[in-house]
Amino acid sequence: MKAELFPFQKRALGELRMKSAEAVYRYQRTHSKQVVSFTAPTGAGKTIIMAALIESIFFGDEAYPEQPEAIVVWLSDSPQLNEQSKDKIDLKADKIRLGQCVTVQDDSFDQEMFDDGHIYFLNTQKLGKSSNLTKHTDNRQYTIWETLANTAREKSDRLYFIIDEAHRGMQGREAGRATTIMQKFLKGSPEDGIEAMPVVIGMSATSARFNALVQGIASDTQYVVVTTDEVRASGLLKDRIVISYPEDNTGNKDMAVLQAAADEWKDKWDHWYQYCYEQHYAYVNPVLVIQVQNATASSISATDLDDCVQKIEERTGIRFQEGEVVHTFGDANNVIRINGLNVPYVAPSAIAEDKRIRVVFFKESLSTGWDCPRAETMMSFRHATDATYIAQLLGRMIRTPMQMHIQVDETLNDVHLYLPYFNSDTVKEVVEELQNAEGGDIPADIYGESLDTRVMDTLSVRPRNTSSGSGTHHTKAFPEQMSLFDQPGGTQPMELHDGGAAQYGNGGQTGSASGVHEIPSGSNNGTGSAIGGTTHQAAEQQTEHTQNPQPTGSAPETGTSQTAPTGNSAQTEP
Length: 574
Prior knowledge:
Blueprint: H1 7-30, E1 34-39, H2 46-59, E2 71-76, H3 79-92, E3 101-103, E4 119-123, H4 144-154, E5 159-164, H5 172-187, E6 199-204, H6 207-214, E7 220-225, H7 228-234, E8 240-245, H8 254-279, E9 287-291, H9 305-316, E10 325-327, E11 336-338, E12 341-343, H10 348-351, E13 359-362, E14 375-380, H11 387-397, E15 414-418, H12 424-437, E16 445-450, E17 456-460, E18 496-497, E19 500-501, E20 513-514, H13 536-545, E21 562-563
Parallel strand pairs: 1-6, 1-7, 2-4, 2-5, 3-4, 5-6, 8-15, 8-16, 9-13, 9-14, 10-13, 14-15
Antiparallel strand pairs: 11-12, 16-17, 18-19, 20-21
Helix pairs in contact: 1-2, 2-3, 8-9, 11-12
């Protein structure tokens, strides 16, 4: 694997490899159906773990021999998810050769059995009764059901059937049809002439979701579980989700809220620029994601896209160049004109790697399986009836772009969502939808912020170990480092108490601490930054031994970290 796995991912991989090998052995010995249930929360890297498992099956590891003739069938409920999973395997699993991953096309696929040594991607939309894959034609001798049945019968010793149920992209009736099709591979379908697949590996975000899929199925089931605590501790997820909304959403305030979102996004640009400059990291280009309304009879969207771009440029002082603003509605050849700028279509799966992209317009296509950790600020013109789509998108936005917790600038551990057509009650519906998607355990703290009063309410706080005792619990902004909040008379950020979360800092923004070098998790490097020369260890010693901390605004002593002032000259627009 090109990607180094985190410890919890390595543990899950080891268990999956052992239990999948046991499942194949048990089926050969008893012919009882085998299921391996793999459950991991949002942000755990389920696809990366599965890619490592497939590579281990094909090429062996320290505990198991290679199985180059293995066959893997990967089933999801949308073509976009298939392509995203396929692209990740091609990109991260360096031992998988070009052409080994095959997308089953309904217009050309016709085989008696699947070929050895390949990974086949299927989606439930191609398995309906109206699909060409399920019919005999002049150009198709074998239906996809016959291909699957023949492979399961003749090659059961090397067939691994993966059901990706983790990213449900469908709602309502479509979701019900997808579930019915997925269950055919677990229960069998006499109507289609197939029995249950010998070995099924199910991927799911929650155990309840996969249990609903396998309910009533007679099989030997083994479980592999990654907990939310493991993912949080790894630094892969943002600490906080801040949802901003107008207290009174009856007026036409959407463009005013967009301006607030643009301010937040520009501030993130400045903070990321200074942080990456000081820490000598590749620059993180944060993305502003804008969800617009559907098309009308006369326009591509009921939202005024020209006004959107104009307002963002006015607030940020940026004049966008071609390729910096993109959209995801329409097809690959759909270039639209917005405020005098050519705005091309970009596939959602391609956004993360294109560092030129600054602003993304979308309708609904980003809600499923999208993965772009650079997307840190979102504005939605959707109305309160679309809470499910908002929650799905939030679940995709809480990944950290550098795959670690940022110690010296707490604003870089936030993701911010602006909802002009929501209020305090409907925002709680978004939180409930996110709780449902995550099995009741939201992987980040969620705060609701009224744009009228600028007061934050605690909507959901992830469980954490705290010392016993009553009173207010203070969450330290920068662990192991001095903070302005440690000064006499200072206030603690994010004070958690019965009244909710107090507003922290200056409007919730805190600059990065100049002169402190961020040491990534797992690093043993004890040398300091070339700029400041202060490590976390040194900062901790200073915190412990400083007897007379300086008041806010005074000149820092040599080697002491301080919050960078807003508008620092180092923060130039890249």
